[in-house]
Design a protein that fits this description.
It contains nine helices and twelve strands. By secondary structure, it is an alpha/beta fold.
Length: 356
């Protein structure tokens, strides 16, 4: 038996030999890829280890097709080769969040790695070097820049880059903030493609709900175009801390967002890049939230859905341990049981197939 990732690597090699553009292909109709962000030690999403992946897999009962990791430029502007190598050795595809930011702090303006400096070409040399390393890695990669672009918690959101003004950039009929994002996304992809990194499958990633929910910040305005996007992706969360005062279900968020993505980018595979729900919130137990979510995911409610990955992380929110967040299967036996039972019983998950 071979893992899905091994089969994808074989397909990549064959495509390369025949001069085709290598990519991570969408699964067959009715089938799904299963990935994970496996958590780390610091909460900064770039210090994951093989043991984190196997701990999740042991509890979920399924091998993962991809492993999700951040590449924080405040640590290094280099391609995360070591992580990519052990991910490939594990039989999975590296899925890299290209995080051009100066710190992990959110809800603030970025002074260095901002959209304007990207558009000025200030990091073109870094991007070309990154792309050369990705190219030389020699097998498929999933890569995104601009995670949850319609959410103001990240500095590439339009709030920090011109907002609703139409007078400072490009088309005078479009809000400058989203328009600058689109131009920066296109610039990054074009620079990396120009460096020969044809093994990158480019992912465009939104939050399920716009934040803020105002017309100029609609996710559709951030779409960079079919020529530079291969997959579209979404984040959907229940309560993220024990103190959250709302507990939106997966379905009530995913249904409208999926319809918008379906209309915006017909033909593109849809990825549930992140979903999760913390323990400790009195409004909903994570196992119940996840059971309902997996029922929809695995039950075919979203026909273009190509894959999903749980956000398997824990972090502190303040000095009170009762307020800590955990979405980790390792910490929540009932949640682990839900995953193991539902994934093992599903015929949709592609993990292993007989060798040809």
């Amino acid at each position: 038996m071979r893992s899905l990732a091994t089969m994808l690597l074989t397909a990549f090699t064959a495509a390369s030999c025949y001069g085709q553009a290598p990519s991570v292909a969408a699964p067959a109709d009715g089938k799904l890829y299963h990935g994970v962000y496996p958590g780390g030690q610091t909460g900064e999403e770039d210090d994951i280890a093989p043991a984190d992946v196997t701990a999740y897999e042991d509890l979920a009962g399924k091998h993962v097709a991809w492993v999700y990791v951040s590449n924080n430029w405040y640590r290094s502007r280099a391609f995360p080769l070591e992580t990519a190598q052990w991910t490939r050795d594990h039989g999975s595809i590296p899925f890299i969040r290209l995080m051009l930011r100066s710190s992990s702090a959110q809800n603030k303006r970025e002074r260095l790695f901002n959209v304007r400096n990207i558009l000025r070409g200030r990091f073109d040399a870094d991007l070309r070097a990154w792309a050369a390393q990705a190219r030389d890695f020699g097998s498929p990669l999933l890569v995104e820049w601009g995670t949850e672009c319609n959410g103001a918690w990240f500095s590439w959101n339009g709030k920090w880059n011109g907002g609703k003004s139409t007078r400072g950039f490009g088309d005078k009929t479009k809000p400058d903030g989203p328009e600058r994002f689109v131009a920066a996304y296109r610039h990054i992809v074009e620079v990396m493609r120009g460096a020969g990194a044809a093994n990158i499958t480019w992912v465009w990633h939104v939050n399920a709900t716009d934040g803020p929910q105002v017309p100029w910040n609609a996710s559709e305005l951030y779409y960079p175009g079919n020529d530079v996007v291969d997959w579209v992706a979404v984040s959907v969360y229940g309560p993220q801390t024990p103190l959250d005062e709302g507990a939106p279900t997966f379905r009530e968020q995913m249904d409208p967002c999926y319809a918008r993505l379906d209309s915006l980018a017909p033909g593109k595979p849809v990825m549930l890049a992140e979903f999760g729900c913390t323990a400790g919130n009195p409004l909903v137990a994570p196992e119940n939230w996840a059971r309902a979510a997996l029922s929809d995911i695995l039950g075919g409610r979203y026909p273009r859905l190509a894959g999903f990955s749980w956000w398997n992380e824990r972090w502190e929110n303040d000095d009170n341990p009762a307020h800590n967040t955990t979405m980790c299967l390792e910490d929540i036996p009932a949640l682990a049981d839900v995953f193991k039972t539902m994934l093992e019983n599903s015929k949709a998950i592609i993990v292993e197939r007989p060798s040809p």
